[in-house]
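Task: sequence in, structure out. Protein: D-inositol 3-phosphate glycosyltransferase.
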Amino acid sequence: MTDDPHVSGSPDRPLRILIGCDTFGPDVNGAAKFAEHLAAGMVERGHEVHVVAPGAERGPNVTRTEVHEGQKMTVHRLRSWRWRPHPWLRYALPWRIEANAARILDTVRPDVVHFQSHIVVGRGLARQAAKRGIRVIGTNHFMPENAMQFTPFIGPLHDMVVRALWRAAGRTFGIAAEVTTPTLKAAQYFEKCTDLDKVHAISCGLHVENYTADLTPRSENVVLFLGRVEAEKHIDELLRAVALLDDALAVTVEIIGDGEQRHALEKLAVELGLGERVHFAGYATDEYLRAQLTRASVFAMPSRAELQSIATMEAMASGLPVVGANAMALPHLIHDGENGYLYEPGDIEGFAERLRRILTMPHDERVALQRDSLRIVSGHDIRRTLDTFEDLYRGRPVTDPVVDTGVITVIERDAEAAG
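Result:
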């Protein structure tokens, strides 16, 4: 990582912040959600925020005022093309990104650039910002392994391309003064794959006050999944596990989200005899989403490659017990036996047993799991995340709140020395 000059001027003056994204609202995914939370939070704190992101439709470059999470910000939309193997992803034209980045940086003249991905937008902004002596912060939400399902690379080519993508990540993130990722496990994995070090573990954060917990007894058994309906989420394991549960439990499944796997999963639900017991809600309004989170009996997250899982945090903020795969960063959120249970990926019977345990336990035991979900997620309050990024933007020493046991463990790090 390079040593960039600290942001000049009064230490408390408002900053001009440029956030670079390969995915941003109206896209619905964890990286886009975090970027929206971050941008809106910084606007609310009085900073001037610019966002660079691909256009949501094919068209020329355009700069306009957009409203995200109730806050106005300037968004520079770049001409984009659809990535055909993917159901919705658009990308800015890579052969134009450095020219576009230079143009925007020279117009905006930001105090700091914070990129969210090294793929296209982040690469161009990082390179051009470094040439201009602008402080650069990078946050990684991307795992090349997840993206491979949308490419033609299989067999030996698969591993070769994954390694090449991690090398590319190392080159771009190596430009940044500071690098972050949402959890300690994700930071350790990122360091291993890129040979970078001193990566900060900073939660994506959540407005926990926006969610409502219901600690009263349930009159129905509803298992909820929230997220992209894609192969990497392994939602089929959830359906297969529910199919093993006793019919007397009358378990229903609510799946909120959409993606390329929806048709296959609808077909699987019928084959498993679940039929009308599985509801595919597709993309839903915030009001519907939060109502279902409050109503559900248990939240399920079978994904094996979560760098954090904002969806799981939303469920915890709604006071839900959680059953999830014992993989990647989920154990940071799901503390086995405290706020839910972990199962080994692929162990469908183990998954079903843990769901059954929650759905049949006495009310007081279930409430204990709910209260622990609320306790654990409280450490992921968005205000702590925004405080930490503000300090990084200004070049101040920061503390990484690493939440993995329900207790905030503080790791002191000198942001100056981390360069």
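Residues 208-379 form a domain with the Rossmann fold fold (CATH 3.40.50.2000).
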